[in-house]
Structure formats: C-alpha cells, structure tokens
Amino acid sequence: MKNFNFKSATNSKEASKLASGRATFLAGGMSLLPAMKLRLAAYTDLINIKKIKTLSGIKVSSKSLRIGATTTHSLVSNSKEVGKSIPSLAVLADGIGDPQVRNRGTIGGSIANNDPAADYPSACLALNATIHTSKRKISADKFFKGMFETDLKKGELIESVEFEIPEKSAYAKYPNPASRYAVVGVYVAKLKNEVRVAVTGAASCVFRSKELEASLSNNFSASVIDSINISAKGLNSDIHASAEYRAHIIKVMAKKAVSSC
Amino acid sequence: MVAVNITINGKKISKDIQDNTLLSDFLRENLSLTGTHIGCDTSQCGACTIHLNGNSVKSCTTLVADCEGGEITTIEGLSKNGKMHQMQESFKKHHGLQCGFCTPGMVMSAIDLLEKKKNPSEQEIRDWLEGNICRCTGYQGIVAAVKDAASKM
Question: Which site from A32, A92, A149, A150 is most exposed, i.e. has the minimal number of CB atoms within 10 Å?
Fold first, then answer.
C-alpha cells in the first residue's frame, strides 16, 4: 500500500474541507484498504470520519428508519430498533462478509463504494431510501450510477441513510460461498404506495426489476413470479455464474423473498 | 508520520508510525508479538484476528493510526499468571488444530463469539467462524473446542 497522510475529522464540514485533491474518506476500510493494498487505488490523504459522533447511530420514527453513515453492520444486525421496524434489514446486515468484517464495515462505506455485489445498495433501492449527505438529500433511485459509481461529488460526505418503513419486506441472497458477496441478491419491499424489487450481484450495478415490480404490484404472492420472464441480457457472466443462471436465480431469490415476507 | 497512543494487552504504547502501517505488521515487526499471524494478507483467512475495543477484527485490514486511543488484545494477552485462557485449554483438549497457523485467529474469533452469545449452537459456531479459514482440521476439533469452552466459560 502506498503511503498517505492519515487525518481525522471531528465534524462533517472539516471532513469535506480536508477531502481536497486526491483524498478520500475512510470509514470501516473493509473495501478501501484491500483495494489500496492491491494497488487498485491510491490516495494522498485518508480522512477518518469515525470520530465524527453525529455520523453514528440509529433513529426510528413512525415512517422511517435512519442509520448514521459510520454505523457498523454488527450494530445494525443487533439493533432492536432495526429488528422491530425493518427486520429484513437486520437480516441483510447479518449476512455481510463475516463477523470481523461486520464489526468494522459501515453502511455509508458500503453504499459509497457501490460494489455491484454489495448487499446494502439493494436495500436502499427497495426501501426507497434517501441518502443524506453533507450537501443535499439524494434519492436512492438517483444515487447508484454504475459499477463502483455514485452521484456523490468530490468532498461530499454521506451522513446518514433514511429508509422508508415498509408494510412487509425480505431480502434473499444466493451468496458466493467464499466471499459471501451476492452472486444474486433480491430485496422485495411492499411499501405504502408501491412494491419495489431491487437486484444486486447480477449486473454491473444494483437495479430495480420492472417486471417483478409490475407483477407483484398486482398480486403480492410468490406464485406470480413463475410466469415472469427475466432476460439474461446485460447480466454478469463470470466463473461464479453465467448470465442465464443469474437470470434464473433472480426468480428463485425473488420467490424466496416474497414467501418469507 | 502520525503519533499513536494505544493499549495493547494492558500495556500503554505511544509511538510515531508511518501513516500506512497496518496493525498486523505493527504487532509483529515493531512489538515482536508474533502470535498474530498473517496468512492471506487480504482479509479473508482470519489468522490475524485480534480484539479492538472488545470486537474481533482483522488486523491486516486495520491501520494502526485508526486505532488511536483504542484497546487491543492479541493472543499473547489471553493467559493470566501463566495459566491459559479457557478457549486455549479447550483447543488443546480437543486438538482443535494441526499445523497451528490459523489457531490464534480462531481462538480470538471464538472468544468474541462467546462474549456475545453464551451458549451458541453448533450452526452458530460454524457461521461465526466463517471469517477464519483452517486448511488442516476440517473444523471438527475446532467446533468441539468452542462447544467445550462455551460450557466452561
């Protein structure tokens, strides 16, 4: 890993100010540090944001659940508030990586990285999340732009993620047995006004399945999924699974998710 | 360079280190605490697992600078007055190792489990050890050791 200047910020403003030039924010570092060690990424400055107290924590209201950017996966998975308001989100957090990764990795880091096979981006899309940053609010639909790409601008810091509390929801993942990343993960949520279905792991970026959403909006049951045709076009094909296999697994995971809602 | 103040196995340590120093390297190279092993160095194998502020983490993916003010326990910090920790005793009793390379990480990870869940089921033990890879034992002795420790801790 190439050397850099390690700096700790005590508030969001300071963090954004420090993040000039070739600098980046450091939360849990579970993706950033391995990428830097492999020389896939290099920065002049790492800005530690874990000392910013307002960025950590979980708040629940009648309509939404808000999770601070530096809240770790293990805090989310063990949170009573999350377990009560959106239990599927606690299940998702508990299935990320392994215990050591969950003790360090954060929700803000996960969505800022936008790994095509990460779990949290699917929760953001399915639960109609709003990403609160140091500059603005971004709807999840506009946040995830492409492979490892988001709408975040230079120096813009994620402060919290606000999820709409659904009537029912579930996440079903077919994990890579070694890494626990999603070969395919499907998050299904029946919200007050709509049904949302987000798919991760299958393509270059998390996406909403219009086909699954249309059918489940008419009839929220696992049986309607049998008749849906999921195209393999544009899906990933690699050593873990072909595009056709992924298309099939999307249906299997969607059925599993709807059944466990 | 960055100044760090951390407590390692109960001992306060203050040092100036290069900003990109990894905790695993710092423990082994600077402090000669070679019980913490570096297996894959890509945060997959878990041999480098230590406790940071009461949670198991992989020291090969943790910056020393990021541990400022923190409390760290390594495998060397487990025994008290020459007496091994119960988890170490159980690993010995059930032969939860063969070559022993993964053992420090397994022990540290398993202790974290029992600190968070008193009587885990076999499935819960196996799920928890997802982050630790052993290429010798087939995990049977390891799981038996953790079960045994759970009944005694």
Answer: A149
Q: What is the pLDDT of residues A121-165, one digit of tens each?
A: 999 999 999 999 999 999 999 999 999 999 999 999 999 999 999
Pick the CATH number of A51-164 from 3.40.50.720, 1.20.1250.20, 3.40.50.2300, 3.30.465.10: 3.30.465.10
Two tokens, residue A233: 């076009």
Domain count within chain B: 2
- Could you tell me the residue range of the domain that residue B98 belongs to? 86-152
Q: Which amino acid is at B137?
A: T
Q: What are phi and psi of B40, to 5 degrees?
A: -95, -25
Domain ranges, ordered by start, for chain A: 51-164, 168-259
Q: Are residues B69 and B90 in the same domain?
A: no
Residues 60-89 of A with CB under 8 A from B: 74
**A20 interfaces chain B, CB cutoff of 8 Å:** no
Calpha distance A69→A106 (Å, rounded) = 7
The CATH number that domain A168-259 falls under is 3.30.390.50
Torsion, Cα A11 A16 A18 A22, to 10 degrees, reads: 150
Does residue B65 sit in the same domain as residue B107? no
The domain that holds B134 is classified in CATH as 1.10.150.120
Chain B positions touching A4 (Cβ under 8 A) are 19-20
The contacts of residue A217 (CB under 8 Å, 6+ apart) are A194, A195
Contacts of A29 in chain B (CB under 8 A): 61-63, 66
Q: Using alpha carbons only, what angle is made at residue A45 by residues A44 and A48, rounded to the nearest 5 degrees?
A: 160
Element spanning A245, H or E: helix A243-259
- CB-based contact B120:B114 (threshold 8 Å): yes
Which domain CATH number covers B61?
3.10.20.30
Mean pLDDT per 10-residue run, chain A (261 residues)?
A: 96 94 96 96 97 97 97 98 98 97 98 98 98 98 98 97 98 93 97 97 98 97 95 96 98 98 93
Residue A255 C-beta-side C-alpha neighbours within 13 Å: 12
The residue of chain A nearest to residue B17, with distances taken between CA atoms, is A6
With beta carbons less than 8 A apart as the criterion, state whether A114 and A144 touch: yes
